[in-house]
Amino acid sequence: MELASIYSVQMDYIQSLVRYQREGFVYGFYQGKTFYSVFQPIVDRAGKVLAFEGLVRIWDDQGNSVNPGDYFSSMPPGDAANVVATLLCGKLHSINLAHTVYRHSKLFINVSPSVFTLLANHRQSIEHLMHRLRCLRLVSDQIVYEITEFEETDLEGILQGKAYLEEYGIVTALDDYGARYSTRKRALKIRAPYLKIDRSYVGDENFVREAVAVARSIGAKTIAEGIETREQFEMCRESGVDYFQGYWIAKPMTSQRLQRYQPLAL
C-alpha cells in the first residue's frame, strides 16, 4: 500500500477499520487484532486536568492481550502497517474523547516518525485530518502529537511534519525525555512545546531539574510521566515540573469510565 493512499479524499482507509459501540464510542479492527482506547489524565500542580493521553489496548483473535510497545516495535518504522495502526489509534482516541464530558480537553496522541514523514510529504493528509476534527467538533489546538523514539535519519521528516502541523495549530511533545534517543541535543533541535520526562527518571531530582532547565531554555512545558507516589510528585513539583501523569494521579481508564472521572485536588 502506498502511504499516500492511507489518507485520501477518495477513500478514508483508516475510517473503514473503525467499529462502533453504544453511546458513540468506537474500537478498531486491523490485521486480526482489536484496538481499544484508554485515557490517562495529565494534570497541573493543583490537580486540574490539562489533557488526556490516548493509550491503546490490543487483543489478538484468540482474546489474548498484546503489549502495545512490543506490537509497534516489532514493525519496521516505515512499514505501512505501522502507519495504519498509528493513525487508527489516533482516530479512535479522537472519536472516543469527543463523546465524553472532557471533549474540550487537550488530547495527547503517540505518533511514529513515519506519520510525520507522511504529513510532510502529503499535505492533503493534514487537510483530511482537519476535516475529521471538524466533524467531531474538536479544534486543532486540542491535539498534541507525542514524538516517539526515532533514529537520526528520521529527524528531517519529523521537523518538516511538525512545521506543517503547527501551521494548522497542532503542536508536539517530545516523549520519554532521557530514554535512549530522547536526549538534550534532540530536545534542542526539535523544540517541542512539551517535554515529557521519562518515568525512569521521576525519582532523580538532579535529572528532573536539568530537564526543567532544558525545557525552559526552549520555552517548553514539562510533564513528569509515571508518577506513582506522593514523594515523586512533590519532588517533581518542587523541582519546577509543570504537569504530571501516572498511576498515583489516575490509572488509564476506558471511555465509559472517563465519563465518570472526577479529578482530585492535589
TrEMBL record:
It comes from Vibrio orientalis CIP 102891 = ATCC 33934. This is EAL domain protein. InterPro entries: Cyclic-di-GMP_PDE-like, EAL_dom, EAL_sf. It comes from the Bacteria. Residues 19-266 form the EAL domain. It holds the Pfam family EAL. GO terms for molecular function: cyclic-guanylate-specific phosphodiesterase activity. CDD domains: EAL (cd01948).
